[in-house]
Amino acid sequence: MSEEKVKVEREGMRKGIYILPNLFTAGSLFAGFYCMVSTVNGDYRTAALWILASSIFDGLDGKVARLTGTASKFGVEFDSLADVVSFGAAPGLLMYCWALKPFGRLGWLAGFLLLVCAALRLARFNVQVETVESRRFVGLPTPASASMVSATVLLFYHMGWPSSYNRVAILVLIYFLALLMVSNVRYNSFKDPSLIKRQPFAFLVLAVLLLIVIAAEPVIMLFTIFICYIASGPVGFLMTWPRRRRLEKVMHKGHEDMRSKP
């Protein structure tokens, strides 16, 4: 790092930091920590709810920063560190204590893999944030992965199933979520400006019906929404695979033609 860049960052720190967006980030970090406290105390349903609360705070801090013009490099780094705790360590510990402990080493390795893949996903996001289109995430976002963990726990409690009901499926789910976070599978970020523009009247009717269904069965619908979002990445990847292969062949042929020219 150059001396000029270090000097600029120090000057920025002397001027202070923005309080409002970082308070939301601190709220997300608190929710993640309290999730771990509830997990240690054996209150897994409460722990799952605190993960959802952390996801809400995490979604708000960035929006508040953009709306108020208070985005900063400090806020970005603080947000990433908070996400490692709230969406890596907290869900990893929750799943190990709730369902994976009987697997022994395979169980705690699954929890650790969820943590390390979340950290790697966030590090890659920070590096690629200026080069990747904002409408797509590369890899499963960490809040979505943690929320899927939360929705799974809540679904088991809602249906009255014990955590031993299908531990193998839960173990496979954790490994699947971890690998998706560090994959090149793309996910919709819902940051497309066209989403907030005028839409047909039928869209409003569908949105109202969706809200009614969610209000009727919130736990089941929450699980369904997250499982559909997570599946959308691999499905989209497979559907666009032939087109990408054709494009790669065309580009490779073009490079070969250029090399063959005198």
UniProtKB/TrEMBL annotation:
It comes from the Bacteria. GO terms for cellular component: endomembrane system; membrane. It is a multi-pass membrane protein. The lineage of its organism: Bacteria, Pseudomonadati, Thermodesulfobacteriota, Desulfuromonadia, Geobacterales. It is an enzyme of class 2 (transferase). It is found in: Endomembrane system. This is CDP-diacylglycerol--serine O-phosphatidyltransferase. It catalyses: a CDP-1,2-diacyl-sn-glycerol + L-serine = a 1,2-diacyl-sn-glycero-3-phospho-L-serine + CMP + H(+). InterPro entries: CDP-alcohol_PTase-I, CDP-diaglyc--ser_O-PTrfase, CDP-OH_P_trans, CDP-OH_PTrfase_TM_dom, CDP_ALCOHOL_P_TRANSF_CS.
